[in-house]
Structure formats: C-alpha cells, structure tokens
Amino acid sequence: QAHPSGERRDAARNGALAAFGLIAFHERDYREAARLLGAARDGLLTVGGSHAQRDLFEQAYAESLIRSGEHDRAAIVLVERLARRKGQNRFASRRLEKLGRLGKTASGLVAALAVASTPLAIAH
Asked: Which domain of life is it from (predicted)?
C-alpha cells in the first residue's frame, strides 16, 4: 500500500472486485457477481496470475450472467471467447447450447453470434 504507483492501485482495485465477485457467486448473488466480475474483467492482467487463472474469472463471469438472466450479454461474452480460440472452446460451446435450450435468448442472436465466431476456413 505504501507504493504510490498506478499499477499497484489498479491491481488492488481489480483484485478486490474479482475477489468480491467470487464471494457473491459463492453466495448465489449472481447479479452482483456479474457486476463485480464484469468490472474487474478488463483489469485482471494487472493483478497477475496465469492465463488459466484469469480464465477461471471469465468463466465465473459468463456463468453469473447466465444465472442472473443476462442471456444476451452472456452470449456475447461466450462468442468472444470462441472467437479468441478459433471456434474451439468446450465451456463456451456448452453454455451457448444451454442458452439456446433455455429459449430466453433470441435463438437468432445465438446462431448469428456462433456463425460469426466460426473461423472462415471452417465456414466455407
């Protein structure tokens, strides 16, 4: 805390948001978990940790969006995730499938987002 750097301040802020987001998720307050994890999402790199560790926060964020009924936002996060992984991600694929079964997300949106995330080589 004695170090005046902006990086320290950013890491502390984003780390706290992520930690409280996981606590909210554990307490089944999915709306609050989504709010906190979403706020921390872009700043998790400043906290440190491996890609796999930061990935768990993103999975918790997507799952909290689904469980809080924010299906359109969840679909966008999941499609972005698929796009970054060239269409190969079991977590995102299964959650998008779940959203389609729930019927609460416009099926056209999910389908369009899934097609948009498919690499061009596969789409042709």
From this structure: Bacteria
* Contact of 61 with 41, CB cutoff 8 Å: yes
Q: How big is the chain, counted in residues? A: 124
Domains in the chain: boundaries:
1-49, 69-116
Give me the torsion for CA of 77, 81, 87, 88, rounded to 10°.
Answer: -130
Q: Quote the CA–CA distance of 17 and 105 in Å, as a whole number.
A: 27
- The pTM for the full model equals 0.75
Q: pLDDT at residue 24 above 90?
A: yes
Q: Are 95 and 61 contacting, i.e. CB atoms less than 8 angstroms apart? A: no
Identify which of 95, 94, 90, 38 has the alpha carbon closest to the alpha carbon of residue 63.
Answer: 95
Phi, psi of 103 (to 5 degrees): 75, 5
DSSP structural state of residue 118: S
Predicted local confidence at residue 101, as pLDDT:
75
The 10s digit of each residue's pLDDT in 30-63 is 999 999 999 998 888 877 778 888 889 999 999 9
